[in-house]
Specification:
With 218 residues, the protein is mainly alpha-helical. Helix content is 67%, strand content 0%.
Length: 218
């Protein structure tokens, strides 16, 4: 019953990350105060936001063009390529999604890019590779002090499909301790997977999540 309850919570709350990569947020602030570089950042941000709006309307091809333009202007950021990968997934083009997601992880492997690549590899039935990149994402997220559930719950979903319920519960619980998304507030998690004793969930992150699922900002 506990595994079934946890799975229900995973299906409710696991999504392509909608957050901010801390290094890109910091780079954005530095660029804004750096004259010409600030102008380049603002142009990249405009492309990124236009891509987000187009994607929300289902205009994924146009969104991809905007995000690719943002990526050329901000080659230090994995965010545009992470969004490109998500768009190709929405279009059902898994190979191009994999290429974009791999590029995002080469720029920086974090909770966001690892989850996207892991989800793409899982969709391609390349489970061992998906497990490997998600484990690396979990390690990178914890090493950076991030509190994001995404790679942990993507791993839990893989273990559920493989029938490894011990690991499903292990990584599901770890995800509960790193909840970041408003839909996955500790109260909602407790309803899905009640546990005795005080909650062990970390405090919500200070910055708000962007409102649209799967669309990240610098």
């Amino acid at each position: 019953m506990r595994s079934a309850a946890l799975l229900s919570c995973l299906l409710l709350c696991t999504a392509v990350p909608a957050g901010r990569s801390d290094d890109t947020a910091g780079a954005a602030g530095a660029a804004v105060g750096a004259g010409g570089e600030g102008k380049q950042h603002q142009e990249a941000l405009s492309h990124l936001l236009r891509g987000n709006d187009l994607s929300a309307e289902g205009r994924h091809i146009e969104a991809i063009a905007e995000w690719e333009a943002a990526g050329r202007l901000r080659p230090d950021s994995n965010v545009p390529w992470n969004n490109v990968a998500n768009a190709f997934m929405a279009l059902g083009d898994l190979e191009r999604a994999r290429e974009a997601a791999e590029w995002a992880t080469r720029i920086k492997l974090d909770y966001m890019s690892s989850t996207t690549l892991g989800n793409v590899l899982k969709a391609l039935k390349r489970y061992e590779e998906a497990e490997s990149v998600l484990l690396r994402g979990c390690e990178a997220s914890d090493a950076a002090g991030d509190a994001y559930e995404h790679p942990f719950w993507s791993l839990a979903n893989i273990y559920h499909e493989q029938g490894d319920y011990a690991l499903l519960v292990e990584f599901g619980v770890k995800g509960l301790d790193r909840i970041s998304h408003p839909l996955c507030a500790p109260e909602a998690a407790d309803r899905c997977f009640p546990r005795p004793g005080p909650r062990r969930c970390r405090a919500r992150r200070a910055h708000p999540c962007p409102p649209r699922e799967g669309l990240s900002l610098f």
